[in-house]
Amino acid sequence: MDKKSNFLFLLFSIIFTETPAAKGSSRHQFGSTKLFVFGDSYVDTGNSRNPASCSWKEPYGVTFPGKPTGRFSDGRVLTDYIASFSGISSPIAYERRKLVKKSKLQFGMNFACGGTGVFDTLDNGPNMTTQINFFQQQVEQEVYSKCNLNSSVALVSLAGNDYGAFVAKHVDLKDLRAFTSSIINQLAINLERIRGLGVPKIAVTAIEPMGCLPHPAASSSYQNCSETWNLISNFHNQMLQQTVQKLNGESRKSVFAILDLNSAFRSAFKSQDRAGNLKFKHPLKPCCVGVSKDYSCGSVDKTGARKYTICKKPELSFFWDTLHPSQGGWRAVYSVLQSSLQQLY
Ligand SMILES: *[C@@H]1O[C@H](CO)[C@@H](O)[C@H](O)[C@H]1NC(C)=O
Ligand SMILES: *[C@@H]1O[C@H](CO)[C@@H](O)[C@H](O)[C@H]1NC(C)=O
Ligand SMILES: *[C@@H]1O[C@H](CO)[C@@H](O)[C@H](O)[C@H]1NC(C)=O
User: What range does the record give for the signal peptide (predicted)?
Assistant: First the structure.
């Protein structure tokens, strides 16, 4: 379905859901695009536990919508941009499904949760297997029927936290390659499972250049990326590429597509404004940081005093905090990804 017919569908569904007679049935009559999301903080739109997660604290959400909404950014995240590309509202966070009107479920559901991975990580949120279990329950409970899923798309974005947990637990990194294999094998099983539940198109992100996140780049005053971490990203992405090719080879249609966050981040770092100047002067430098090592963006002390600083113009920082892009960063990444998003529709 192209963007225009989606837009028409949207108009129709607005009209029909306003009409009492059509209530409840409209969702099944029309097969709109739906987006189902599995992953971590890069795509989470509100599943992380409130209030423990920084994503529910000020100043998260300060740019959009003006208060914290569980997004790990000053505003929108990747999910929101991919939904807008599909011409739909951002899918509702799984944790909020019972708090909203049923009509809000028509754009799909977001199961992603900050801090999680393919395997269990240092965070105790639902791993990818559990996120897919939640999705399966929704299908079994007929919140979404098979024919309902007919024009749906899944977005899968994670694995960074798996590596974070691995490196935190292992002094010796010689087992890293074996670990990458086990992540990719489990990921392949998970992708097939999502397809088996009836989702015909599945986009999986190649991992970002982890060495360019402000956290590892801090040791060079945000000047240089950590090459060790970038090698981990590259190796992961090579294996992912091979595996996705294999998965597509086995199915008649191309079900799986890679969204290359790695090259998108690198191009986005060099984004230019209309006058041809670099948009992000110091791309690895985050906007919001703790005042010292004991604090991070969003920290307050016992008296409630802020223990972080924010840059004046978040839109000029690629990164919002030490791990996550700002809304401006995600917008720049999205503009690089647009051409590869075409293949999903
Ligand atoms: C995911 O989490 C569940 C529930 O905690 C656990 O039983 C399972 O082993 C985990 N799966 C993987 C692949 O780590
Ligand atoms: C959706 O369902 C219709 C009718 O059942 C079928 O013709 C069409 O091929 C399906 N589309 C996809 C993407 O599976
Ligand atoms: C960054 O990398 C360059 C080139 O390798 C090097 O000359 C420079 O000293 C590094 N900067 C810092 C702050 O580490």
Answer: 1-21
pLDDT for residue 252 is more than 80: no
Residue 317 maps to a domain: no
Q: What CATH number has the domain bearing residue 109?
A: 3.40.50.1110
41 included as an active-site residue: yes
Q: Tokens for 152, please give them.
A: 């749906």
Alpha carbons 244 and 254: distance in angstroms, whole number = 10
Ligand 3 contacts CB of residue 224 (under 6 A): yes
> Does residue 321 have an active-site annotation?
yes
Is residue 209 within 8 A of residue 265, CB to CB? The reply is: yes
Mean local confidence (pLDDT), 226-253: 93
CA of 119 to the centre of ligand 1 (A): 7
200 lines ligand 2 (CB under 6 A): yes
183 belongs to a structural domain: yes
Please give the single-letter amino acid code of residue 245.
Q
Establish whether 48 is a catalytic residue.
no
Q: What percent of the chain has pLDDT over 70?
A: 91
Total domain count, the chain: 1
Ligand number nearest CA of 219 is: 3
Q: Report which ligand 3 atom has the smallest distance to the Cα of 221.
A: 13
The model's pTM: 0.89
Domain that holds residue 235: 3-15+27-277+327-344
Exposure b/e, 178-209, CB count within 10 A at least 16 = b: ebbeebbebbbebbbbbbebebebbbbbbbbb
Q: Is residue 75 part of a domain?
A: yes
Decide if pLDDT at 227 tops 80.
yes
109-139 pLDDT, tens digit per residue, is 999 999 999 999 999 999 999 999 999 999 9
